[in-house]
Structures are given as C-alpha cells and as structure tokens.
Amino acid sequence: MKTVTEILAQPRLNREMRLQNAMITMYCKQHHVYQGKVCRECERLQQMTARKLAFCESGIEKPTCATCTAVCYTPVVSKQVKTISRWGRLRIWFRHPILMSLYCFDSLKPSQMPKPKLLNL
Ligand SMILES: [Zn+2]
What we know:
This protein has helices at about 5, 10-30, 40-55, 75-90, 90-95, 95-105. It is an all-alpha fold. The chain has one domain (about 5-105). The longest helix is centred in the N-terminal third of the chain and has 21 residues, at about 10-30. The site of zinc ion has 6 residues, from helix 3.
C-alpha cells in the first residue's frame, strides 16, 4: 500500500494539498497563535486533510474536494474546513494566484463518482 507522501506526489493532488495547507496557514496566522509555524491544532488539521485527500474513496482520480461526492470528514472537522475555506477563498487569490487558477481548472473536471440516486423517482 502506498504512503500518503507517495500518493500526494501525483501533481493534481499535490496542488490541492499545497492549497489546503496554504489556506490553513493563512487562517492560523490571523486567528491563532502563529510562531513561525502553524499551531498544533492546525498542524493536526493539515495532516488530516492531507491523509483524507490521499485516501479519498474516489481514488487518485478524484475531483477536487469541493466537487467530490465522497464523505471524508466527520461533521465537526467538515465544519472546521468549511469555515476556513469560506474565510480564505478570496484571500487565497492574492497570495497564491497561480495555484488557485490551477485549482479552478482542476475543478472543471467532472466527478467520476456515481451521482447520488435522488432523481430516480
Ligand atoms: Zn492555528
């Protein structure tokens, strides 16, 4: 079985991981005690999001997390991640414009996962 690092070497996933980490770091700098590196809680969050990204049930061909239909996070973590991305989604454009442009491009890729069967009435 591949390790997280091996899986996240894949360029598309690597970009998403770097973006996640950058956003958490920016959020931590503004909201927590940042001493040259992110606080312990954010460090744990970064490790967790990287692991979830690598082992998402949609596989390495997964769409970006924002468009993915798999449920990777527990409700508590999901809320935390949503808060951070809501706070950071405009700010990140100023800090990492190229990474964010690539992310938007990646987001255009349709999900390979079967759609939820809500419309089969
Ligand atoms: Zn923090």
